[in-house]
Structures are given as C-alpha cells and as structure tokens.
Design brief:
Blueprint lengths: L18 E9 L3 E6 L11 E5 L4 E8 L2 E6 L12 E9 L1 E3 L8 E2 L17 E3 L22 H6 L18 H11 L7 E5 L4 H10 L6 E5 L6 H16 L1
Parallel strand pairs: 8-11, 10-11
Antiparallel strand pairs: 1-2, 1-6, 2-5, 3-4, 3-6, 4-5, 7-9
Protein name: ATPase F1/V1/A1 complex alpha/beta subunit nucleotide-binding domain-containing protein
Family: Belongs to the ATPase alpha/beta chains family.
GO molecular function: ADP binding; ATP binding; proton-transporting ATP synthase activity, rotational mechanism
C-alpha cells in the first residue's frame, strides 16, 4: 500500500475509555477471541491494546462485531491463564516507531528491531492500524514509479501513490519481480518497505543485502513460522512505516 498523504487521525477519538470483553476461545498460544459485552459494541477497536485479567497484554488485530481477535505479546500457555476476561482500551493505540532511522533495519511484526542492531529512536510514532486516508485527501498521482522492468514501465506504468497488486500462480517469479523493482529504486531515491509473511525471510533478506537494496529498504518479518494474525500485524506495521 502506498498512500500519497499519510493520515495521523486517531480512529478512536470519540470512543469510551474502557470496554470489557469475555474470553470465548484461544487458538494456539497467542491468538485469543474476545466477545465484547453489549454496552461496548459498535466501537472501532482494531489496533488497540487489550489487557487480560490474568495480566497478559495483546493487540486487537481484527474485529467482527461483537468478536475481537487479539494477538498476545507473549505466549501464555493456556486459556485459563488469561483470567476469563479483558479490558480493551479504545484510546490506547498500539503504535509503531517510524522515520529514517529504520532504513536498512529488519523489524518484527510489532515494529521492533530484530537484527541485533542498535535500538531505534521512539520520538516519531504512528498507530499500527491508523485510519485510512480518504480518497479526497490523497494527493494527485503525477509522477511515475519506475521499476526498471521495461514491460511494466512501458505497458502498465505505476504512479507514485498508486496501489498495484501483483498476482500470479506459485513459482511464477512474483518475488523476483518485486526484488528487481526494489533494487532499481536506489536510482530513483525511493525508500522501500518489504513485508515478508513467508517463513524463508532470511533468504529474502540475504538477497536484498547481497544486491545492495537494504541501503534504501526497511524489512518487516512476520516471523519464522507466522500465524495469520502475525501476518496481518506485520502488514499493518509495514504500512505504518511506509506512510511516514
């Protein structure tokens, strides 16, 4: 996702301070399903913090009223350890550090450096799940994003700020195409964000480093064996970083 004008609007500005919810299911060791109690239904809660009675903390990664799907910060081991209920804070947005310090770094799904390098500055942050930019607020697309791939640049050119989906069957070369386009951006002065939701993220990271692309790229990894919830979170983190 490439947005021409980032949005810093908080989607929870008019929400109550706290909403109670009950644990109804747990998938694996980190994904919990909550059911919001009736008085709290109708509030947008994606991207906010949930604190469980048992002390665990997590992030609401998806919402389907009255259900919330929460990815825990750390595995708890059992549903019983959660304490049966949680308090969701609509105004406690989970945020991601953004800015030029992230270029060249590898981040986890929550936006934390996972490459063994120095800590990043936390002065500039954006909500992990920020409010989408309305079409009327987007800048006009007037400049091309050259990929360096003649067939694309000549026949289906991409504009800076445009959403472009790359679709194809397995093993058709989509990844190589994306990597080639990222490598070419070193000549265009464009910063790239690559979100990897596959377990072989080390191979992709190695390829980017080997071709000198990490000098203008932020790499976000969903993990070595990511769950769907971790993939959603990694994608949201990547979008927040890119919007800055």
């Amino acid at each position: 996702r490439m947005l021409a004008t980032p949005s810093n609007k908080d989607p929870h500005d008019n929400a109550p301070e706290a909403i109670e919810a009950d644990v109804v299911a747990m998938q694996g060791s980190k994904l919990v399903t909550l059911k919001v109690r009736e008085d709290g239904q109708g509030t947008t809660l994606q991207g906010v913090e949930a604190i469980f009675k048992g002390g665990a903390v997590g992030t609401v990664v998806w919402q389907r009223t009255p259900l919330l799907f929460v990815l825990l910060d750390d595995a708890t081991g059992s549903r019983e350890a959660l304490g049966g209920s949680a308090v969701v804070s609509p105004r406690a947005n989970v945020t991601v550090a953004v800015g030029p310090d992230l270029v060249g770094r590898c981040l986890d799904a929550r936006g934390r450096p996972c490459d063994g390098g120095a800590a990043v500055r936390q002065e500039d942050k954006l909500p992990m799940f920020g409010a989408p930019v309305l079409q009327r607020d987007m800048a006009t697309i007037s400049k091309p994003l050259h990929t360096g791939i003649t067939a694309i640049d000549a026949l289906t050119p991409i504009g800076r700020g445009q959403n472009m989906l790359l679709v194809g069957p397995l093993a058709c070369g989509r990844r190589d195409l994306a990597l080639d386009a990222i490598v070419h951006q070193s000549k265009e002065g464009v910063t790239c964000v690559y979100v990897c939701t596959q377990p072989d993220h080390e191979a992709i990271l190695s390829a980017l480093r080997g071709r000198g692309a990490m000098d203008h790229t932020v790499f976000v990894s969903a993990g070595t064996d990511p769950t769907p919830a971790e993939c959603v979170m990694a994608a949201a983190t990547g979008c927040a970083v890119a919007e800055e």
